[in-house]
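Here is a typical protein record:
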Amino acid sequence: MGSALAAEATIPSVEGTPERLDWKAFSARYFPNCCRHDLQAVAAYAAYRHGLTVPR
């Protein structure tokens, strides 16, 4: 995963969500209509897993 993609990722507000969502739960919750290879969703998940806060 490139750091440029993670830097450009938009992370939905994760306040009040269970800790450590796996990819399936994260994508279903925040990107319900995305395809499996949606790089924005993948980058947002990577940033989420690394605890980054990226402004919308």
Notes: Helices lie at 3-8, 23-30, 39-49. Residues 1-7 have pLDDT under 50 and may be disordered. The first helix runs from residue 3 to 8. The chain has one domain: 3-49.
